[in-house]
Every structure is written in structure tokens, then in C-alpha cells.
Amino acid sequence: MSTGLGLSTPVLAPLLPITGTFALPFSAYFTLLSYRVVHYRLQDEHYLGDNSSKTGDLNNKLYLATRCHQNFLENVPLGITLAALAELNGGNRKTIAAALSTLFVLRVLHAEAGLINGMGLGRPVGYWGTLATIGSLAGYAAYLVKGYWGL
Q1: Dihedral sign, CA of 71, 77, 80, 83?
Q2: What percent of the chain is modeled with pLDDT above 90?
Q3: Between vectors from CA 17 to CA 16 and to CA 19, what angle results, nearest 5°?
Q4: Which domain of life is it from (predicted)?
Q5: By CB distance 3.0 to 4.6 Å, which of 28, 68, 82, 128 could disulfide with 137?
């Protein structure tokens, strides 16, 4: 009879199943935002920078698409990292899934119902909601390791 050396499959079971699940929708939406920037660059023949030859920022589709893309990149990595930290430290999977679902919806609202049109209601809702979600995830992740604070 032979014995296996090294780590067995149960030890290598998925460590971040919730965060891993949300990799797909966040990546798909990131791809859409990135494609939109490239589309407007090619349409305007403006291959570098975030302003096309059009005047007025609220009418400049390239500028608005670039801002949507950048805002996504400024917020989502931190949210996903905080969710992963919470999940690795034994956080409730339903709570983490709810937080990542909320973050995804808020980022889509911020871009699609807000920033891409210049000034829509989705912009402040997405902004403030994102800050609240990231703050809540940070607090939850810290709470999960409160035993290590030395108190």
C-alpha cells in the first residue's frame, strides 16, 4: 500500500470560495469598463490621455468612460481584499457575500446611473454606499481578529 506525500486535497480545499465567486462579476464588469474606454479612444482617434478633442467634460464620453474605469480601480481592489481578509479569518459567508454583492451593485450604479451620464443619482449613491461598504468590511475584518489586539 502506498501513502501520499505532501498536502492532501481536503487541506487544499478552496480557502476563499465567496471572494473567488465574486471574481467573475467584478472582472466581467472591469472588462466592460476597459472596453468602453478603448471604444471611445478608437472612435475619437485619441490614443493617449483621457480627453478627446470634444469640449466640455460632461459631454466628453472618453473622459467619462475613463473616470468610470478609474473609480472602479480605486475602490474595488480594497473591497475585495477586505472581504478576503474577513473570509480567511472565519467571517460569516453570507455576510461577506452580501457585502460583495452590495459593493458590486454600488459600483455599477456609480458608473452606469451616475458618472457615465455626467451627474446622475447613481453617482452619490454609489460613492457614499461604497465608502460605507468598505468601512463596514474593514470593521468586520478587524472585529474578527479582536483577540489579537492585546486588549
Answers
A1: negative
A2: 65
A3: 65
A4: Eukaryota
A5: 82
